[in-house]
Design a protein that fits this description.
Layout lengths: L1 H23 L8 H29 L11 H21 L3 H7 L1 H28 L1 E5 L14 E5 L5 E2 L6 E3 L9 E5 L8 E2 L2 E2 L4 E8 L4 E5 L2 E4 L2 E2 L23 H9 L3 H4 L8 E5 L4 E5 L9 H4 L2 E2 L3 E10 L9
Antiparallel strand pairs: 1-2, 2-15, 3-4, 5-8, 5-15, 6-7, 8-13, 9-10, 9-12, 10-11, 13-14
Helix pairs in contact: 1-2, 1-5, 2-3, 2-5
Length: 332
């Protein structure tokens, strides 16, 4: 969302820059055709922004759009509709020549510039804050119950793991390392838009899970119990199990090396399906990656099925639930 806000701010900034340029050349301020057109352009840009943001908000609510896509054709289409509608409206609402003297065309243009400056500053600031520091996130599924419920809104601390260069996965500064037990928000670890996991295409979508395995850890699940480096994780008080039955490990003739390779290549969900839900591994978490799992273990499609999460895909750490008010809390 922060990238979208940034480019929307740039669009309004271009209008502001153009307004200053035209005013300095004495092209604005008179009741002429150019002044009227430029006023309509301001309304058009405003209509475009409103329709795009409204469409983006609805798409995000329904989790229908990949976060890797800046704007979809549908969003741009609605934005163009908003632009045209606003231009037509402002053209016919422009005061007649005799009214223009009374209302002051100069004040109309000055008002447009003030709004352009306000929107430009606010949107750019918001995009920077969301990119570097904090971002809102909505829980889309039951995989993290009871820690988070479907529909919970929370803030994500994005600076805790470092500052990332825009449009890259390179981090300039790292403040804290990812620890076992951290609840992280990350982009689904795949670069193939057609890859099918968890019942659908997950490319570009944001997930939220808990870190279980760190780089180099040996992870194994026996009868729903998680073992890391051959020691059971007894402190997992946050877990929930919806099914008391234990799905036993399916018989397999593949070697340990092949097992590890299939897991790293996100093939387990296709090869074993639910057969790895309760008995899994052992696997070794590769360097610069993490194994993550949902707290609602029997209802979570996680690293058991689609492999480890590269560190570069992690966006931030769950910070605080802010909505609904009855659930305001810092997650454990």
């Amino acid at each position: 969302m922060e990238e979208k806000l940034f480019w929307i701010g740039i669009l309004m900034g271009l209008h502001l820059f153009g307004s200053h340029l035209l005013r300095d050349k004495n092209k604005l301020g008179e009741d002429n055709t150019l002044t009227r057109i430029w006023h309509c352009v301001f309304y058009g840009i405003t209509g475009f922004i409103v329709m795009v943001l409204l469409t983006v908000s609805l798409d995000n609510r329904n989790a229908e759009v990949s976060t890797t896509i800046l704007f979809t054709g549908r969003q741009i289409g609605y934005g163009v509709f908003g632009f045209i509608a606003a231009v037509v409206y402002s053209w016919f609402m422009w005061p007649k020549k005799e009214e223009g003297v009374k209302k002051g065309v100069l004040s109309v243009i000055a008002s447009d510039m003030e709004w352009s400056e306000t929107v430009f500053s606010a949107v750019i600031l918001a995009s920077v804050v969301m990119y570097l520091f904090v971002q809102a996130f909505k829980i889309p599924s039951t995989s993290m119950e009871r820690t988070f419920l479907v529909g919970d809104h929370l803030f994500v601390n994005k600076i805790v793991y470092g500052i990332r260069i825009p449009y890259t996965r390179v981090k300039l500064v790292r403040f804290f390392k990812v620890k076992r037990g951290d609840i992280v928000i990350f982009r689904f670890p795949s670069e193939d838009p057609k890859e099918f996991q968890c019942g659908g295409r997950q490319y570009g979508r944001d997930f939220i899970k808990r870190v279980i395995g760190l780089p180099g850890d040996k992870v194994e699940i026996k009868g729903k119990k998680v073992f890391v480096n051959d020691k059971e994780l007894n402190e997992e008080k946050y877990t929930q199990f919806a099914d008391n039955n234990v799905i036993r490990r399916p018989e397999s003739k593949i070697s340990g090396e092949e097992y590890q390779k299939f897991w790293e290549n996100r093939q387990f969900g296709k090869l074993f399906a639910e057969g790895i839900r309760d008995e899994f591994g052992p696997v070794t978490v590769p360097e610069k990656t993490y194994m993550v799992m949902g707290d609602n273990r029997d209802r979570s499609c996680d690293s058991r099925y689609w492999g480890p999460v590269p560190e570069s895909y992690i966006k931030g750490k769950a910070w605080v639930t802010y909505w609904p008010p009855s659930r305001i809390a810092f997650p454990d």
